[in-house]
Amino acid sequence: MTSYIFRYFNTIGYGETTRLLLTAAKVEWTEEHPEWPQEKPNQPFGRLPVLIEQSDDGSPDLVLSESTTIERYLARTYGFLPMDPRQAALQEQFRDRQNDVLLTFREYMSVPDSAKEGVYAKFEDLLDRVISAHTELLRENGNTGYSFGSTLSYTDMALYTFMKLFFIQIVQYSEAMPKLFKAKLTPELAKLATTVEADPLLVTYVSQKGSLAEYVLPK
């Protein structure tokens, strides 16, 4: 039986979507948190995350690096992305849009004060476009809490992680970000978050890791 080792830092970051996919797939998997930077030379491309797929005897059968490569491999393997390339591409574009937002946020945090205003405007425009696109997608799907059809998809899990990053992790770097995201949050996105958490494939995992309900539901 195929099993997996997932190597990443003990944080949401670029690893949470993979954790959700492995959990939803109901496969055997364990997580390792390598000592960093000591273990950096021992990882493919010198970076994390890394996914190791093991054969029945426990030997490495496949080693992958890069977060979206890992995610898409698992999503295709376990049915969370359509097999049809065109239908899959429709989902994958939403994940790539999220990366654009996150990379621009990192740029905003690293540039000198004199450049922050321009980069922040770019960041907020990208964030608005991502929220608008996802909201429209959810409405077109009947506002069921799922992005496509009536079952959990790669897009759902990636968007859930995106929200989790803004509400829980990014506050370490900017206290204003959770408030900004909350102000822009639409009812459709809030419903997706609660629907993902209540999905039978993920409900146990969420109960162990913590819920977004306090962040996305009205008080």
TrEMBL record:
UniProt protein name: Glutathione S-transferase
Q: Which GO terms describe its molecular function?
A: glutathione transferase activity
**Pfam families linked:** GST_C_3 (PF14497), GST_N (PF02798)
Q: Name one GO biological process term.
A: glutathione metabolic process
Check the record and name the Gene3D superfamilies matching this protein. 1.20.1050.10, Glutaredoxin
Annotated GST C-terminal domain ranges read 84-219
Lineage, opening ranks: Eukaryota, Fungi, Fungi incertae sedis, Zoopagomycota, Kickxellomycotina
Q: Which organism is it from?
A: Coemansia aciculifera
Annotated InterPro entries: Glutathione-S-Trfase_C-like (IPR010987), Glutathione-S-Trfase_C_sf (IPR036282), Glutathione_S-Trfase (IPR040079), Glutathione_S-Trfase_N (IPR004045), GST_C (IPR004046), GST_superfamily (IPR050213), Thioredoxin-like_sf (IPR036249)
Domain named GST N-terminal is located at 2-82
Signal peptide from the UniProt entry: none
